[in-house]
Protein: DUF2284 domain-containing protein
Amino acid sequence: MPTCKDEQDLVAYARRNGASDAVIVSTRDIGVEDRFAAFCRQPQCEQYGRSIHCPPHTPGPSGFLKWAAAHPRALFFKIDVPSAALFSDERRQVFQLLQETAAAIEHKALQTGYRKALAFAGGSCKAVFCHADPDCAALASPAQCRHPQVARPSMSGFGIDVAKLFAIAGWDMQWEGRHGDGTTTPMANVSGLVLLESRDVQRMTI
Structure:
């Protein structure tokens, strides 16, 4: 049975394996709103509908709330990156690191005893892992994802309020941004979330 120590071991694992920082949060505190999920389609993201992990192929905010109800806790992590990297050819590598980090933490959680751990990352897995392929293989028939071990859904498609998660974690959220003079903010964050079920929630505190 997972324990509070298991949670802290997962936090330490995340920090050793790609995350700049990580915390455990209660899923009751995670904000979920339809308006955030709507940003995927209005204005439409260029990856909208191109991946099994992107809207409209995901269960959206209502689906996430059902999962959260069955997963009282979550590990939230961030990766600090130079903002300029998100406006360069390095952008795909940044989101690949994010996807792989989320998947690695999920895998570690499964090994620890969280048999229903679920990871969420950011960006489109299609743009990261299958950018050179015309279609998402998981949307084909028969459906078979090319990268099931590392491809994870984006938090944005589920309406997750990432800014609120940063506030809960006590972190300053650094937005990627390009100024009028062509310069960018020095640093930015990308982030992920891993839902953790527990049969011993009442004895756990953050």
About this structure: The helical segments are 4-16, 34-38, 60-70, 91-112, 125-129, 162-169.
